[in-house]
Amino acid sequence: MNNPLAQTNADEQNKNWVKQALQGDREALNQLIQFHQPFIYQVAWKMVHDPDDALDLTQEVLIKVITKLSQFNFQSAFRTWLYRIVVNEFLLSKRRSKHLSYTSFEEYGEQLDAIPNPDLSREEELEIEELSKEMQIRCMSGMLMCLNREQRLIYILGDTFQVDHQTGAEIFDISPQNFRVKLHRARKDLYSYMQNKCGLINKENPCRCPKKAKALKDMGMLDPQKMQFNIQTKTRIMDYVEGAYQQARTSIEDKYQALYQEHPARDDFDSETVVKELVNDQEIRRLFNLN
């Protein structure tokens, strides 16, 4: 699984693709898009909580990156230049799924508390096991949406995908110390909520994914045939994480992080269609003199 932010040795290849694309090489532009698009999409999916919004946002961001490609001066790392644009666009995006109505941890907690906790037999729990996983991932993704945009993106990159602090600082155009402080604050807000509400972290909490899943299914709000997060997949976010980067954490912090890294990485979206639409866009064809 490719994480461009962890592959410093790929920068020379990136620059070669850019040079060739600026000379009208369609295949080089195609390769550049294909190398970065999957990772951008995975981050977008965590950022906006909706797979369709994530796909649209990824395409919009890549169009912005490509149309600015001639502005790259080859003096800095290409990944820093590219992902600074990506981050800025993600922070400015006004996208918000129509299904979301919470704006804070307090409000989100109230909505979860309002969902009944029906008793379940062991047989019933096994029957809705997959739906329970869907509920778990939806719930945890919803928690991320309670962070403000900057906190959310810093947490997604810094903890979920384990982008090192130096790279994170370069992308956000801040100091490594400032990046660490912002990441710490995001963790504190998220972990405090989970410690007080989430049954996965604290067994004394009443919230249980199987019970909530059954209640939402009975209410017609969770459909086993239309799962968006617990999808058929062979990849996880953990597959994007590079083992070289390790930061000392307590065991409890490891558990929070591991829960998010166990979430699926979506690999069933039509990435080829995205690439074709981009390289066939008339404005992009004009800018790069593509045949």
End-to-end separation:
31 Å
Please give the count of helices. Answer: 14
The secondary-structure class comes to mainly alpha
Percentage of residues in strands: under 5%
Shape: globular
Main sheet summary: none
Q: Based on DSSP secondary structure assignment, what is the total number of beta strands?
A: 0
Provide mean pLDDT, rounded: 85
Low-confidence stretches: 244-248
Helix-strand pattern, N to C? HHHHHHHHHHHHHH
Written description of the protein model:
By secondary structure, this protein is mainly alpha-helical. It has 14 helices and no strands. Helix 1 (11-22) crosses helix 2. The longest helix is centred in the N-terminal third of the chain and has 23 residues, at 26-48. The protein is globular and about 65 Å long.
Which helices and strands appear, and what pairs or packs with what?
Elements lengths: L10 H12 L3 H23 L2 H17 L10 H15 L12 H10 L7 H6 L1 H17 L3 H12 L4 H8 L3 H22 L11 H10 L32 H11 L9 H10 L1 H7 L3
List the defining traits of the structure above.
291 residues; mainly alpha; 0% strand; 62% helix
